[in-house]
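Recall from the previous lesson that a structure prediction takes nothing but the amino acid sequence as input. Here we apply that procedure to 4Fe-4S binding protein from Parabacteroides segnis. The sequence below is the only information supplied.
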Amino acid sequence: MKKIEKVIIFYFSGTGNTRMIASWFSKCALENNTYCQIFDIASKNDLYLKEIDSESLIIIISPIHGFNYPKITLDFIRSFQKGNNQVVLMNTRAGMKIGNMITPGLTGIAFFLSSFILKKKGYNIIGQIPFDMPSNWLSIHPAPRKEAIRFIYEKNYHRIQSHFGKLYLGKTDFASNRDIIQDLLISPIALAYYVVGRFFLAKSYYASSKCNNCSLCIRQCPVQAIRMINARPFWSLKCESCMKCMNYCPLQAIETTHGLWLVIIVLTSTVCTFLFHDLLPNVYWIIRFLVSNIILFTLLLVLYRIQHWALRNKFIAKVISLTSLTHYKFWGRYKANQNHTVQ
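The prediction returns the following tokens.
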């Protein structure tokens, strides 16, 4: 078995979890006198693809969004020219500390789909490795505590060393195989998220009255999904829900529209009940499903626009903020601590 001599790492990161995994792997490579380069997928600099030679081990690291790689990562993978390099796919999933354990996330179809695309181009997949890093999905839960974050960092750093050791010696590493049953079962949700769900979540964020229009969120958005409308940040459907804007805002002015979600769900339920119970009681379930989602999505687009306009009023903006869990201090924020030292 031939030891690896050159590694090229491509990563996409919102709050820094995947960037941290990339830097840890690079550190292991350098400690073993292995040449290593790291490139940010979001930079969209095609020149880095020219750095790949046939001897390089390619590593692609990305978070899991809706049990799949986000669109920006999949688009990047599709942009690869044909080749025969060895490739290791990695991901970061939402991990939480419970006792002395880290709850495992779900990869879904991320590895299946990406491996299929790359194999068709001639690449040899020699590894699929998930890492359960601190969850940054603050639209759903509060930020992890510092002790939990440190615990998760330590566990994953030692896992990186173990996985690097196997790959360095030329061995394959399919750590993801232990989750294959769960990932297959969750695949329909992954497809639904890619087609519909990510657009719904793209309209999850708004800038509260604390926003001072510094435009940091606009400048740092890795997919250029935020633009300024009526002197206030506005999230477009390009948003990947990577949480970078919310977690990096220095004033914690970016919040989740929990109140708007509730209004939309109630209105959709009311309209659909009237439509399918009183007017069209015998419509096939597939038609009900499609029409319900069209109503939901239409209400989302319209009411998000109305909310954005209404936020110009300070009183209304305050009321909207009070309906968001992310407005309160106890909810907190999370971004990976790149300066954290591990033993």
